[in-house]
Amino acid sequence: MNHMERKTAGVPTLKRLPLYLRLLRRIKENGEEYASGAVVARELGLDPIVVRKDLAITGAVGRPRLGFQIDEIITAIEAFLGWSNTADAFLAGVGNLGAALLGYQGFEQHGLRIVAAFDSSTDIIDTKVHGKTVLDIVKMTALAKRMHVQIGIITVTASVAQQVADAMIAGGIRGIWNFTPTSLEVPSHVILQREELASSLAVLSHRLLLQGSDD
Question: What average pLDDT does this structure show over 29-37?
């Protein structure tokens, strides 16, 4: 599948594919060799037509009356998402959120490995957090260049987020995962993903409110 074909996947599809992957891995652990789109749809409470279209975009081909061979569809989804080969990442800002991300063991299963963490606080620099020594953030740009790191994760305070992003980009980082509320300005060649924690909380709170009004 070429790069242009991958671009046809919309954001909703990209967000559903990891859900399919998690379910398919569980089905495989249960000893099943095949899984149909209908089974995936039923387990996740989704429209079978949506699931069928999502899985088709990965290039995987199902077998009549059997569905998708588990290993094949798992491999296809991982390849489509770019999770086949683990990518190295730098994390800047080792506060509560940054430390929590450093300790999350699930990233490597999704193709991401945080190889170094950076901070500007002398209280944190040279300490170990989840087995990783925190480095002075002034070293980040040079290290990114030397290690050819492509992904940067920003969990610093909002006031310095743009400065940190600029330092990452100067080091050759082309993908930034922004956990701050700051809207970053980046060149067109840099992919920016902003994690809207407040927006997600707003959706959750509103749904709880609606649920409460139905009781």
Answer: 92
